[in-house]
Amino acid sequence: MQKERPFVITIAGFDPSGGAGLLSDIKTLEQIKVMGLGVCTALTLQTASQCLSLEWRSIDEITKEINVLMSHYPVSVVKIGIVKDAGFLGEIIKAVKVCNPDTKIIWDSVLKSTSEFTFFNLETLPILRNIIDKISLITPNYNEYRVLKDNGLLSNGNSCSVLIKGGHREDRLGTDVLVEGRNEILLEPTNGDFIYYPKHGSGCVLSSAIAGELAKDESLEIACRKGKLYIEQFLKSSPYLLGTHS
């Protein structure tokens, strides 16, 4: 078994355009010199501009694959992408923690796509109260953060940290906020600007970059700062919705 690179599992959807989900995560992890492993939660039919259909895989298949991968590889960090509801997420987290209780878990809390395709059943949000403290970091955009906050799921003192992405804010556009316990750290855009091209899958790229940096034993703050540098380069990589990794 190779030992030069740490292992990260991404548990996410399959996007045939390669802009989001598993394919995008693996591209990101490869660029930052992390060995990426993948478990598929859903098969989607989508392009960079729209999601046409989605078929969820069974939770039994998903947890079986998690068990096989984690029993064979020293996985220290798991990134979770689209899940259909809180119960589905809870079963995934349970499977990960049974294999290794110390595994760090990042959840990119995708509730809707940018094109307004709904992934997550919001009626199950109350179940998250029993799950959220088992997650190391949640990476919602500003709108998703408001939904989670308004449902009483995020409060000062949570053991789960939150990175609130600033791409959808009307004020201080591009400024992310990292909340660790009662501490808030502002992550400003590099050089104070936020000149970029919108990109399909940018949330996937950021969360997987952070997961990779955590696997390399960076602190959460440093991992988020490095992830922000990576996503800034990705957003500026082309004038199209599909970005490039370099």
Q: Outline the biggest β-sheet.
A: 9 strands, mixed
Number of strands: 9
Shape: globular
- The second-level CATH architecture is 3-Layer(aba) Sandwich
Spatial gap, N to C terminus: 26 Å
In the CATH hierarchy, what is the superfamily?
A: Ribokinase
Q: Name the poorly predicted regions.
A: none
**With helices defined by DSSP (H or I, 4 residues minimum), what is the helix count?**
6
List keywords for this structure.
246 residues; alpha/beta; UDP-N-acetylmuramoyl-L-alanine:D-glutamate ligase; 9-stranded mixed sheet; 6 helices; 32% helix; EC 2.7.1.49; hydroxymethylpyrimidine kinase
What does this structure look like?
The radius of gyration is 17 Å and the shape is globular. It is an alpha/beta fold and 246 residues long. A hairpin with a 2-residue loop joins strand 8 and strand 9. The model has no long low-confidence stretch (mean pLDDT 92). It contains six helices and nine strands; from the N terminus they run E-H-E-E-H-E-H-E-E-H-E-E-E-H-H. It has a nine-stranded mixed beta sheet, with helices on both faces. 44% of the residues are buried. It has one domain: UDP-N-acetylmuramoyl-L-alanine:D-glutamate ligase (3-Layer(aba) Sandwich), CATH 3.40.1190.20. Helix 2 runs parallel beside helix 3 and helix 5 runs antiparallel to helix 6. Helices cover 32% and strands 21% of the residues.
